[in-house]
User: Fold this.
Amino acid sequence: MLKTKPHWPSTFAATLALLAGIAALAWGTDGGKAWTAEAARRLAVQENPIPLPTATLISQHTQNTTELLAGSAGPELILMEFIYTRCPTVCLAMGAEFRQRQAQLIADGQQRRVKLLSLSFDPQDTPADLQDYLQRFSAAPEIWSAAIFANAEELEHMKQQLGVIVILEPKLGFIHNAAVYVIKAGKVVAILEHDDRSGINSIIEQFIPPAMPVLSELNKHAQPAHY
Amino acid sequence: MPNPLTTKHGIALALLAIAFTPVGRWLESSMTSHVLVELPLLVSFGFILGKQQYARYDAGLKLINRGGIFGIIVVSFMLAFWMIPRWLDASLNNYWVAYAKYVSMLTIGILLALSWPKAHPITRAIVKIEFLTMLYRLGWIYLISPERLCNNYLLSDQVWLGRGFLVVGLILAISWLLPVFFGATFNTPHQERKPLLKHRGYITD
Assistant:
């Protein structure tokens, strides 16, 4: 059969190397699930929610709204996105998705428990720019707010904590990932693609169980939905 | 004959330059230059080191590296690991991952220098074919992927890298095939020494 004699130390070493190599690749991709940094960070946050660093935010009404991100004082669930108002493409799509999400929250009667927050990472954005952005998408002020960071260091710290990488391209503007951060009790519990409607639906259902059918019917009749 | 100590120091200096000075940041600024210039450069540093110090390094590995198989398996998996977009990205965000990358590339070069001379022509052929197909696969994926695979690079960067992979793959394929047409596979000394082929009745000339 075999005309060559196996050299057992080499065979042993080669087999070991093969197994170790496969193990290393499995570890490096979380079992084949995360091949990109983005996928890895989204997978990691589900196991280990990221606590939000404190940040002083200035809302579109030039008010300090740190309680928007705080744990106990704030709403039950916050859907947060990083945007900048001069964005020609992605942020417009994200705004349109948020408008859709706002309508959905009102239709489901969850508008008091789930809030939307558009956070600008562009130091050049002003509260007036935020106001323009929100009006463009018919944002209801009680549901959807926008804010800028008062402090550049806190912005950097937030970006670092959440793994947000922003590249400034001279011709294209800022390049960044269009992700929605789901925040509960001051911690990021999930990161999803901004247009992943079914994913966001199931996260909301997971953390905010739907009210009993009878009550939600009463709600629908008692409060006319307005945008 | 160059003084091996000087070569080692030269390589150490170049490595420090890449790791700690803007030279390395410039190489890593574009995805294409990161993968197609910096990584091969680091591997070639290791290769030169391995060739210079062949006797010394081989003394330790000779027992387990018959036919160069062990070395080539380790090289393959190390290379595959750093081709994962997540880890290329991580090497730009984290010092320790970057150092691990530099050490890995050096190790790949050294192991290649130690293992290639021991490798049978069939082993060499398999390695070459697998390397080429890896380049084509990666090139294609990076070329057509609609999503950004690395947070630190743009989509356009990715497309350029894909093209770069395919171009390098094409050049290598041509340069490796050309000798075959000009008699490279006729009656090689290796075949003369290997009784296995003679037993099977292969025509070696």
About this structure: The radius of gyration of chain B is 19 Å. Residues 196-205 of chain B have pLDDT under 50 and may be disordered. Chain B touches chain A at residues 63-67, 69-70, 73-74, 76-78, 80-81, 84-87, 89-90, 93, 147-154, 195-196, 199 (CB under 8 Å).
